[in-house]
Design a protein that fits this description.
Layout (H helix, E strand, L loop, with lengths): L1 H16 L2 H16 L12 H15 L3 H4 L4 H9 L7 H22 L1 H22 L11 H14 L4 E6 L5 E6 H18 L8 H19 L10 E4 L5
Parallel strand pairs: 1-3
Antiparallel strand pairs: 1-2
Amino acid sequence: MLCHMIVRWRAVREAARGPVVTHALIAGCGVVFVLGPASGLNPAYGTGDELLDAGAAYFRRWGVVPDELFTATPRAWLTPLTALFVHGNWLHLLGNMLFLYVFGAMAEERMGRPAFIAFYVCTGYVALAAYAAANAGSAQTLVGASGAISAVLGAFLYLLPRARVTSLFPFLFFLPLRFPAWLVLLFWFALQWVAAHRAESGPGVAYLAHLVGFSVGFLYAWARYRGTTRVSRPATATEGDSQP
């Protein structure tokens, strides 16, 4: 009885403090981006061609380079972790952080903070490594948190399928419409699937990392929380038009 009361008290305290891990991840990605060359705000990287060269070197150092990842060097194996906090431009950063802010908060609340941060890092690593393995001969650098965030979306689909999600669709003049999370997220997954099959080789969006992350996130939530009571109450969430 006493143990149950202590666990309950800790859960209430965590809920009162809000999604600390989600906010910390967003802040961390924001700080890394502002201090890096892609933001254009750090004078240490110069301007013009000097800035472009610095950006390429920065991404190659901290991002995943598929044809170098499986060289078995410690630095190469760390890049799927460091790449989770590096973004290519402002749109890339803001789009990813929007999705993390919306879906991460409720997923963190459901999983708990320690489990959520471990889930985020591990699934993000797997998604980026899987993309690199599928494109092992590529020298194009891969950066961004989209693999981990896609895993959050997959877990969200299992944990809170009936949450109401407000979506903005350009072809409907950006009218805000509310749909069940399962419908929005399955539609998103289908878009990633189609885009992955149409994507050409070379720089662009790593749709395969999205698909892997989403699938791993859903399967983890299914295996870990199967048999437990899923949250069925309507929840407030807003999904933008950006791709994670």
